[in-house]
């Protein structure tokens, strides 16, 4: 009878990571504003395990005040979470790119943020949820707290 003296346990993260990716991947059929059906690819990572927690997007890249405010918000959030800044392409395409990589939240800096459309929405941003695609206005001062609460 042979009794081994060495036991070699094998464990790795490969299968676990693959399971998370397979579980998170989803394709949704949606109708765009022109009435055409499109496939929306989404990675539904839980916010805790998403590699990027929030995307920051100025509405227009050729408006220096929007870009400056977006950079300010990115600098405010970066010490607490992984932030991705994107200013290329239409805002809808930026949302879709972040949906595909699993970013749970998007923050859009628009003309309301800098006060061009009145004082009621001054210093607010649009916070978009990846899974529901719902958007809501939140104060910049409350943004970090809201995101930390949603992620945890």
Secondary-structure blueprint:
Blueprint: H1 14-24, E1 25-31, E2 37-43, E3 54-58, H2 64-77, E4 83-85, H3 91-101, E5 105-109, E6 124-129, E7 135-139, H4 140-151
Parallel strand pairs: 3-4, 3-5
Antiparallel strand pairs: 1-2, 5-6, 6-7
Q: Mind describing the biggest β-sheet?
A: 5 strands, mixed
Name the CATH superfamily classification.
Anticodon-binding domain
The run of helices and strands is: HEEEHEHEEEH
CATH fold type: Rossmann fold
Tell me the CATH architecture.
3-Layer(aba) Sandwich
Can you characterise this structure?
The protein is an alpha/beta fold and 152 residues long. It has a single domain (14-151), classed as Anticodon-binding domain (Rossmann fold). The chain has helices at residues 14-24, 64-77, 91-101, 140-151; strands spanning 25-31, 37-43, 54-58, 83-85, 105-109, 124-129, 135-139. The strands form 2 sheets. It has a 5-stranded mixed sheet, with helices on both faces. A two-stranded antiparallel ribbon has the order 1-2. β6 and β7 form a beta hairpin. The model has no long low-confidence stretch (mean pLDDT 90).
């Amino acid at each position: 009878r042979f009794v081994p003296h060495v036991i070699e346990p094998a464990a790795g993260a490969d299968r676990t990571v693959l399971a998370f990716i397979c579980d998170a991947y989803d394709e949704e059929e949606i109708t765009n504003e022109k009435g055409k059906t499109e496939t929306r690819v989404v990675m539904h990572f839980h916010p805790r395990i998403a590699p990027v927690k929030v995307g920051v997007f100025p509405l227009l890249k050729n408006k220096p005040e929007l870009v400056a405010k977006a950079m300010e918000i990115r600098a405010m959030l970066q010490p607490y979470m992984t932030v991705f800044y994107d200013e290329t392409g239409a805002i809808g395409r930026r949302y879709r790119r972040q949906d595909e990589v699993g970013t749970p939240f998007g923050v859009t800096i628009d003309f309301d943020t800098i006060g061009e459309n009145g004082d009621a929405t001054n210093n607010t941003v649009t916070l978009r949820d990846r899974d529901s695609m719902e958007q809501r206005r939140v104060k910049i001062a409350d943004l970090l707290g809201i995101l930390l609460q949603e992620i945890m």
